[in-house]
Amino acid sequence: MTMTRRGWLTLVVLVLLAVLPPLFYLSGQPFYLDLATRLVILAIAAVSLNLILGYGGLVSFGHAAFVGLGAYAVGIPAHHWLYGGWDAVATLSGWLHIPLAVGVTALFALLTGLVCLRTRGVYFIMITMAFAQMVYYLIVSIEEYGGDDGLVIDSRTELALFDLDKPLQMYALCFLSLLVALGLVRMIVNSRFGMVLQGAKGNPERMATLGFNTYAYRLTAYVISGAMCGYAGALLGNFTTFISPEMMDWHRSGELMFMVILGGAATTIGPVLGAVVFIVLEEALSSLPQPFGIYWQLPFGLLLIVTVLFVRGGLAGLLTGRKER
Predict the structure, then answer these.
(1) Is 74 exposed, middle or buried (0-12, 13-18, 19+ CB in 10 A)?
(2) Around Cβ 8, how many Cβ atoms within 10 Å?
C-alpha cells in the first residue's frame, strides 16, 4: 500500500518526537526533554479537542477546564496522602489517579454537554467558556488546595511500569499516550460513529432526517474528548508537580484551539504540528530581549490570522497540499 503525503508527514513528525528529545537529554541538555514533554502533553489535549472541533464542528472555549480537573484529580489525592484527611482518596496509586482524572472529566463533560449541546454557534462557545470559568472560580475559592496560589504536588503518581520521577520514563509515558490518543481518534473518525459525527458537522438536518440522533452522537464525542483531555491534565500535573486554577482559565482553552487551527483541524497530525509550533515559538519569542519578550503573544495572533485567511488546511494542509475537509 502506498503511503500518502499526509501519512509520511505523520510518520516523520512522530519519529522526530520519539528520537530527538531523548537524544538531547542523553547529550546533557535536559531542558529540551522537559520542553518536549510539555509539548506532547498539550498535543494530547489538542488531539482531544480536534475530535469535536475538527470533526464535529463544535468550537469549545472551555476545554482547559478538563485539563485542570484532570490535574487536580492527581494533586488532591497526593495532598491528602501527605497531609492527611479524606482517607478514601489519600493515595499515590495510579490505579486511583488515572481513573479518577478520566472519570471526573467524563462526568463533567456529560453534565455540561447535556446543556451546551442544546445550543449552537456563538452560544455554544460562550456556554462552554462559562462552565469552565465556573470551575475556575470554584477552585479559587477552596483555600485548602491553595486557592488562587495553586497546589504543589510533592509526590508523583506511582505506576507499575513507569517511574515518573525519571525524566526519560515520564517522556516515554507521555509519548506513548500521544500515540494511543492519535490512534483512538483516527479509529473513531473512520468508524460509522465518526462518519455520522462528520455528517452532523456538515448538515445536521439531513443526518436527522436519515434517522440519526445527532445530539447523542455529539454528546458521546464531547464526553470522549473531555475524558482524553482530563488524562492529559493528569500527565501535566505529574510533570509540573504544581497545579493552579490558572491551568483552566479561558485563555488556556484559546491556546488549545490555536494549536488545532494552526496545525490543521480535521487532520490526524494537525494538532501535534500546532502544538510543536506553538511551544517552540512561545519559548523562542518569550526569550527575546525586553520589551519584545513581553509582547510575544502579538506574533501568535498575526500568525493565526494569516493561517485562517490563507492556509485553510493549517500547516498539515500546507505541507501536504491538501485543504481541510
Answers:
(1) buried
(2) 12
Report pLDDT digits (tens) over 175-230.
999 999 999 999 999 999 999 999 999 899 999 999 999 999 999 999 999 999 99
pLDDT value for 322: 62
Q: Of 248, 244, 279, 282, give the one whose Cα is nearest residue 41.
A: 279
Q: What is the pTM of this model?
A: 0.95
Q: Does residue 242 sit in helix, strand or coil?
A: strand
Question: pLDDT by residue (tens digit) across 39-88?
Answer: 999 999 999 999 999 999 999 999 999 999 999 999 999 999 999 888 88
- DSSP string across 65-124: HHHHHHHHHHHHHHHHHHH---TTT---BHHHHHHHHHHHHHHHHHHHHHHHTTS-HHHH
Q: How far apart are CA 23 and CA 25, in angstroms?
A: 5
